[in-house]
Amino acid sequence: MGLQQLTISLERRVYTALRSFADRKSVKPAHLLTGEQGEDAAYFHLRGLGYTVVARRWRTARLRGDLDLVAWDGPAIVLFEVKTRTARDLAPADTAVDADKRRMLRRMGTAYLNQFPASVRGAIPLRFDILSVYLLATGTEFEHIRDAFPRTEPRDERGSW
Predict the structure, then answer these.
(1) What local confidence, expressed as pLDDT, does residue 158 receive?
(2) What are phi and psi of 152, to 5 degrees?
(3) Contact call for residues 21 and 15 (beta carbons, < 8 A)
(4) What are the angstrom distances between the C-alpha of 125 and each of 118, 153, 161?
(5) How confident is the model at residue 99 (pLDDT cuts 50, 70, 90)?
(6) Tens digits of per-residue pLDDT, 58-93?
(7) How far is the C-alpha of 57 from the C-alpha of 11, rounded, in Å?
(8) Residue 12: inside a domain, yes or no?
């Protein structure tokens, strides 16, 4: 195990211990705590794969919703939608990212890019990935869908014929 992997492993253990202590005092519903636990696992998983995570639960006052994780993958900004499940159901977790969710994520992606100077904004590749996190009794499993949907909305998602 290299130094970077060892560092990430230590950070994960410390963070998990602190999170479990905080969760015991939390009044949040269980499904929200599960979602946060999945996003935490996704964060460390992506760092271990070499992504540079620059934002978690990013919001803007002008739009509803948030971006679960924002990371650099080389020259591209990747917006990760994290879906967490505690069991493998009949339908995979990524099926929860429907047309409305994709529309919201596209708007949020545009808002995120608008933070950059106009001179470079158009040159930054933007990608939408879905990371399904399965918190199972046998361990945590990940399913990563790279380029899960395009940056522009296809006609059929807008309700046009």
Answers:
(1) 58
(2) -100, 150
(3) no
(4) 14, 16, 29
(5) very high
(6) 999 999 999 999 999 999 999 999 999 999 887 889
(7) 19
(8) no
Number of other CB atoms surrounding residue 47 within 10 Å = 18
The CATH code of the domain that includes 80 is 3.40.1350.10
User: Quick check: is 1 in a domain?
Assistant: no
Q: How many structural domains is the chain composed of?
A: 1
Share above pLDDT 90 across residues of the chain, in percent, rounded to a whole number? 67
Domain with 122, as residue range(s), is 29-157
Give domain status of residue 17, yes or no: no
The band of 157, judged by pLDDT with boundaries at 50, 70 and 90, is low
Asked if 46 contacts 69 with a C-beta cutoff of 8 angstroms, the reply is yes
**Residue written as token pair 């993958």:** 73
